Amino acid sequence: MRLREGESAALAAALGMDERTFLDEHTLLAPDRRSLVLRDHADGSCEMLGADGLCRVHAAKPAQCRAFPFSWRNPDSFRTCPGLRALARGTAENPHAECAEFSSGTPRH
Fold first, then answer.
1. Is 27 a residue whose pLDDT tops 50?
2. Which among 4, 2, 26 is positioned nearest to 14, based on CA atoms?
3. What is the domain partition of the chain in residue ranges?
4. Per the confidence metrics, is the pTM higher than 0.70?
């Protein structure tokens, strides 16, 4: 997840740490060297996901994360995102579940 200006401070506060420590421990320079990105777990999933599959910093999610999966996905999205997998399972069981999920504007993860 790319970070916009101000998002690292909000994420640090959500985790109860100072911004410098947050940047050192949880971000990397993006491959294009234009911004910072959040680190991933070894399996490619977001480092901000807790063991329960829920976002540990939900109230401070970066804009790019808030837009997922509405305006972007990548080839690994269903593999690395527990919420998207649950949505896909729910849609298979209930074809109208996706409509309710997307119209609410509040993804489950």
1. yes
2. 26
3. 1-62, 68-109
4. no
